[in-house]
Every structure is written in C-alpha cells, then in structure tokens.
C-alpha cells in the first residue's frame, strides 16, 4: 500500500500496518508472520511477530518453502520421529554414546541434535 504524507510517498505492507495498529510497532530484527501462510490474509488473528529464524522454520513446516531438510534431504539417516526419540532419551539422561549406537550415528551427531545445530526444525 502506498501512503502519502506531505508529498512524500511511503510503501508499507498492509500486514505491517495491521500488526503495528494492534500489536504495537514492529521491534527491530522481527518479522511479521502470516500464521496460515496466506499473504493475502491480513486479519490480525492471522498475524504475529516472530524472529527471522522462526519465520523461516514456519515457512518450511507449512510447505511455503519446499526444501531438502530433515528426512527429505538425500543423505538423511534419521527421521523426524527418530530425532524426537533421541531428544526424549537425552532428557531422560541416556548416554549419547548409547543413543548414537542405537541410531547408527556418531555421538557428535547426537550432540548436534541436542544443541539444535541440526534438526532444529523438529519441535
């Protein structure tokens, strides 16, 4: 949308105007996310402020950005179910070495899953 004030034009997205009106001004480094993925749906119930990382993860989860991440990656050894199981076992205190052996991966891979360096899109 193009707004004009005192002869100066400013282009603003409707979603940004709506969130500013109902949620307050957008903090620096934050994005406006369309919860249902429909950029034409600028209803306040469909809008939220998120980090860039959260916005990207949402786009992958909802299929807005198709990608070869997680189990869709050609070299993936694990599934999302296995990653959730690994995280559950880590929370229970199971040894990384045992978890790694049970899943056919290295202990360093288990550590990367635990620290969300890899498989960070899996909640």
Describe this structure in words.
The protein has 123 residues and is α+β, with helices and mostly antiparallel strands. The chain has two domains: 60 residues, no CATH class; 45 residues, no CATH class. 40% of the residues lie in helices and 15% in strands. The chain contains five helices and four strands. A two-stranded antiparallel sheet has the order 1-2. A hairpin with a 2-residue loop joins strand 1 and strand 2. Helix 4 packs across helix 5. The protein is elongated and about 70 Å long.
List keywords for this structure.
123 residues, alpha+beta, 2 domains, two-stranded antiparallel sheet, two-stranded antiparallel ribbon, 4 strands, 40% helix, elongated
How many DSSP H or I helices? 5
User: What is the domain tally?
Assistant: 2
**Major beta-sheet overview:** 2 strands, antiparallel
Order of helices and strands: EEHEEHHHH
CA gyration radius, whole angstroms: 20 Å
């Amino acid at each position: 949308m193009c707004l004009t004030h005192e002869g100066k034009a400013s282009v603003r997205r409707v979603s940004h105007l709506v969130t500013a009106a109902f949620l307050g001004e957008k903090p620096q480094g934050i994005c406006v996310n369309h919860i249902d993925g429909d950029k034409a749906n600028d209803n306040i119930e469909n809008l939220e402020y998120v980090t860039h990382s959260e916005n990207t993860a949402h786009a992958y989860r909802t299929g807005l950005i198709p990608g070869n991440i997680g189990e869709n990656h050609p070299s993936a050894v694990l599934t999302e179910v296995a990653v959730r199981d690994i995280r559950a076992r880590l929370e229970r205190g199971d040894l990384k070495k045992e978890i790694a052996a049970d899943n056919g991966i290295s202990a360093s891979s288990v550590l990367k899953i635990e620290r969300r360096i890899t498989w960070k899109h899996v909640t």
